[in-house]
Amino acid sequence: MNTSASCVAALRGVCKRYGRVEALRGIDLDVRPGELLAALGPNGAGKSTSIALLLGLIRPDAGRVELFGMDPQRIEARRRIGVMLQSAVLPPTLRVRELLRLTASYYANPRSLADSATLAGIEDLLERPYGKLSGGQQRRVQFALALCGRPRLLFLDEPTVGMDIEARQRLWSAMRALVDEGCAVVLTTHYLEEAEALADRVSVMARGRVIHEGTVDDLRARVDVRRIRCVTALTCEQVRAWPQVSDAQLHEGRLQIATVDAEDVVRRLLSADADLAQLEVQRAGLAEAFTELTRDAEAAHAETEREVA
Amino acid sequence: MNMSTTSTFPQTDGVMTPRRVAGAYLAEIRSECLRYLRNPGFMLPLMLFPAVFYLMFGVLMNHGHADAARYLLASYGVFGVMGPGLFGFGASLALERDGGLLTLKRALPMPPGAYLLGKMAMAMVVSGLVMVLMLLLGVFAAHVPLSGAQILGLLALGVFGVLPFCALGMFVGTLIKGQGAPGLLNLVYLPMAFLSGLWFPLSAMPSWLAAIAPVWPSYHLNIIAQRVVGLSDAPVLAHVWILLGVAVGLLWLASRRLRRHG
Predict the structure, then answer these.
(1) Over chain A, what HEC string results?
(2) Residues 140-159 of chain A whose Cβ lies under 8 A from any Cβ of chain B
(3) A258 and A247 in contact (C-beta within 8 Å)?
(4) Which member of A75, A83, A180 has the closest CB to residue B104?
(5) Domain named ABC transporter: which ranges (chain A) (predicted)?
(6) From 3.30.70.100, 3.10.100.10, 3.30.460.10, 3.30.2270.10, which CATH number describes the A224-283 domain?
(7) Which domain holds residue B141?
(8) How far is B260 from chain A (nearest CA, A)?
(9) Which one of A170, B86, B178, B226 is least enclosed by Cβ atoms within 10 Å?
(10) pLDDT digit string (tens) for B53-89?
(11) Could you say which DSSP state residue B201 is in?
């Protein structure tokens, strides 16, 4: 199914090491047209290295990297992408309008300046010098620069860091609008709720490998944990001793229990404490699933380390 | 209102007309010039250093030596030309390698060489402005009589003489990242100007210092400048070739380092 022709970007068996550090160990990654793919993983998992390879900034030690079926260093391939990097200090004395006009000039068929500004919500910033903007405003301008070339694939590396909630929501809806237009997006983020709200597909990386790939629901389903909350006279220690309970903590006067067998634990809770109140049972979110997955990967890694030693 | 249907992309994307490519180069040059002309922290030292030195040594402390005013106009002019090349290229490249702007530009479909071309054009414009200021001081404050050809000659020297210093600045900019670059560049800029006889004629210096002066590019540019203002009639072609060689050699070294280390 996943032939290179149907992908806008692909990594095939890619390895990359920096000195003695193996950043990527045989990664496969596909980005399909019009999808929003979130790359998740702890720091040092290899997300930034993967993006740098897809952008042609670095070369793989082994394997193939393709952008629209071409070498990413070909300018024809890069004319179809938009980029927002984690940190880029843009010229502070240039006005936002001038930065937009410059970036749009690199592309064959860019959006109008007004369209780009509206999409990114920066209409009111156009005449301001970039250096006079707040951190969140600068991120919105960088987003406008990423989308101004009418890209078919957008790379967003931690786009909402430093934004307030309102700005983040606006950026999310702009990203949805772009995906509706048929633009594919590769998003890296530390905010799991961001991936949960936006991603069609999630790729979880750890220690230079992809350890899970699938929809957000697939990822959640990988982990059976559910969360029970209630106000009870029972203590953490008591509940933690029950066999089905993987964790119990007191949080703002409420007991929070993580378990794979919620029904059984609830039955036992109700019989142990007749005054129990405010009972809630929730399916685990992406955050729990993610923590579980990466912890497994870490454990597996520690295991192989021990075997080697 | 919305003319385009969803998920339609023009088939021609990725292909640009030569006209649009030229437009991208021009946009890069325009942005680079604007951003530095608007930056007083960059412009003022570059304009004031040579101008104030010339006013002090060429005008105020010079008691009627017409040739001294003429010599110093040319030599401080050369001093003024070095700055935009060294700092415009070196300091900005070092900062932009550090701040991630260079990485972003490499990821964006900026046409090849536009980054360097933009900086080069900016350095030529600023260097030309420095020379205009020096000419104004020379003619109106120091009363150095200059022919039209000499004025044009100095202006051309200002615009093109900056190129070897651009290459030198670029090379230094690939050696060091971030805020340390201006300091290192000053360590190149000021001693080199002094040792090439731009502040005092070489004849006033210890002979061994004068003997090593030809290793500095600014020495060669000063010889050309002295010929332009009519204080020497030595042949200058060899010096032009040396400066061209310095420019090409350092540019080659610097591009190689940039490709390897980013």
Answers:
(1) CCCHHHCCEEEEEEEEEECCEEEEEEEEEEECCCCEEEEECCCCCCHHHHHHHHCCCCCCCEEEEEECCECCCCHHHHCCEEEECCCCCCCCCCEHHHHHHHHHCCCCCCCCHHHHHHHHCCHHHCCCEHHHCCHHHHHHHHHHHHHCCCCCEEEEECCCCCCCHHHHHHHHHHHHHHHHCCCEEEEECCCHHHHHHHCCEEEEEECCEEEEEECHHHHHHCCCCEEEEEECCCCHHHHHCCCCEEEEEEECCEEEEEECCHHHHHHHHHHHCCCCEEEEEEECCHHHHHHHHHHHHHHHHHHHHHHHC
(2) 149-150, 152, 155
(3) yes
(4) A83
(5) 9-232
(6) 3.30.70.100
(7) 19-261
(8) 10
(9) B178
(10) 999 998 888 887 888 999 999 999 999 999 999 999 8
(11) -
Token pair 């740098």 in the structure block, residue:
A52
Contacts of A41 (CB under 8 A, 6+ apart): A47, A204, A205, A206, A294
Nearest to B35 among A55, A56, A94 (CB): A94
ipTM: 0.86
A253 neighbors A183 (Cβ within 8 angstroms): no
The answer for B 92-131 residues in CB contact with A (under 8 A) is 95-96, 99-101, 103-104, 106-112
**What is the average pLDDT across A159-187?**
91
Pairs of CB atoms within 8 A across A/B: 106
A182 touches chain B (CB under 8 A): yes
B-contacting residues of A 219-238, CB under 8 Å?
Answer: none
Structural domain includes residue B4: no
**Nearest CA distance, B96 vs chain A (angstrom):** 8
Average pLDDT of the segment spanning B249-260: 88
Contact call for B110 and A106, based on CB within 8 A: yes
Give the minimum alpha-carbon distance from B191 to chain A in angstroms, rounded to a whole number: 30
Say if B156 is an interface residue toward chain A (CB within 8 Å): no
Q: Is the confidence at residue A72, as pLDDT, over 90?
A: yes
Q: How far apart are CA B123 and CA B114, in angstroms?
A: 14
Tell me the sheet residues that pair with A186. A37, A155
